[in-house]
Specification:
Distance between the termini: 12 Å
CATH superfamily of the largest domain: NAD(P)-binding Rossmann-like Domain
CATH architecture of the largest domain: 3-Layer(aba) Sandwich
Oligomer: single chain
CATH topology of the largest domain: Rossmann fold
Order of helices and strands: EHEHEHEHEHEHEHHHHEEEEEEEHEH
Length: 369
């Protein structure tokens, strides 16, 4: 194994083998600064299977287990926690607390509001902080969006800002049925194919505020703004005809797209906002909606009005022959790349997004050595 620049190889346990967890697992295996010593799975049929095989590659000599005590006995330097927190946030938080109290550092993509702990639910901050103090360990939550796209990149851009009148990041999930063809998410959570008047579950359940208000408050804090409130507005689009998509036909008159905006308000004006657009294939784009410069490609657009006014666009490109959603891969890499810095950080909860050590990704060395 190639050693990293500090001469240390960190022992890591990966938890979770879903879409993102599998990408994280593959990245840990490929990272010269990390050694995979364990894999925690939640289903008995994966227990005993080699981790390399579960990551879509050759065997690596590490078998998956569904026994948390077996993981604890490995005493790794870090747990990379990628298990889903959808409909099980209390359980995911309890898992993380258990690892921290046992003296194991944790990097996670699962507890989304903790990407900016200052704006996360107070009870989350308190229990994680207490566990980190008890175990003399470090906790860090990251991801893509919310994550490095909505925290790290704006921080860098706003280093060149003077007076800022308004900030908004627009995320475009165009033709989402092709990049994320999971019916439960697109139909049940986002409402595609539901009748007129249906409130998408992520709106009805408060998930938008729960996950993205941390981003709004982080940007407001680094701009020195005191928000009067954080307001949500949203709308849905209805299919003008039957639309053929990768998840089946979206019938005429049912939801084929939606937009929401979460805005931090100052004196009645949106000063800091996050806006999200989601559509399925062939959805007509309303003229009232702003667009990225690449009309047919999803991405993120950061719009800063002020002195100077700035606009930054971020796109993920699908590699030829690669079937993995690049956004999923980027989410996994944000966590994997952070592991050495988190292990070396003082104990406690890391409050701000890591800017990154002098070397962020180690995998390029293996390709050019």
């Amino acid at each position: 194994m190639i050693d990293n620049s500090a001469g240390r190889v960190h022992r890591v346990v990966n938890v979770g083998t879903g879409l993102t967890g599998t990408q994280a697992l593959r990245a840990v295996i490929d990272d010269p600064a990390l050694e995979l010593v364990g894999l925690k799975v939640s289903t008995a049929d994966k227990a005993g299977v080699d981790a390399g095989r579960l990551a879509g590659g050759p065997d690596v000599g590490v078998s998956a287990t569904d026994d948390v005590q077996a993981i604890m006995a490995l005493a790794p330097d870090c747990v990379l926690y990628c298990a889903t927190a959808v409909r099980r946030e209390p359980e995911a938080l309890a898992d993380i607390v258990e690892y921290l109290e046992a003296g194991i550092n944790v990097v996670t993509i699962s507890t989304i509001p903790m990407v900016y702990p200052s704006a996360a639910p107070p009870e989350w901050r308190e229990v994680v902080h207490a566990a980190a103090v008890s175990g003399n360990t470090t906790f860090y939550a990251t991801g893509a969006e919310p994550g490095f796209i909505s925290l790290n990149i704006p921080t860098a851009v706003l280093a060149g800002a003077g007076a800022v009148d308004s900030y908004r990041m627009d995320e475009y999930a165009i033709d989402l049925d092709k990049s994320y063809p999971i019916w439960e998410v697109l139909h049940e959570s986002m409402g595609f194919g539901k009748p007129d008047g249906h409130v998408p579950a992520r709106i009805a359940a408060g998930k938008v505020n729960h996950d993205w208000e941390t981003v709004v408050r982080y940007i407001a804090d680094i701009l020195g703004l005191e928000l009067d409130s954080v307001d949500l507005d949203w709308e849905t689009l209805l299919a003008p005809e039957d639309l053929t998509t990768a998840i089946g036909v979206i019938p005429q008159g049912t939801i084929c797209g939606h937009r929401w905006q979460l805005a931090g308000m100052v004196q009645g004006q949106p000063a800091v906002a996050v806006q999200y657009f989601a559509t399925v294939s062939s959805t007509p784009w309303p003229q009232r909606w702003p667009r990225p410069s690449r009309h047919d490609q999803g991405g993120m657009v950061i719009r800063v009005q002020g002195r100077p006014t700035m606009c930054v666009e971020v796109y993920f490109e699908q590699m030829p022959g690669d079937r993995v959603n690049p956004g999923v891969a980027a989410t996994a890499m944000a966590a994997v790349n952070a592991i050495p810095a988190v292990i070396d950080a003082p104990s406690g909860v890391l409050e701000n997004p890591l800017a990154g050590p002098s070397i962020v990704s180690r995998q390029s060395r293996t390709r050019h050595s």
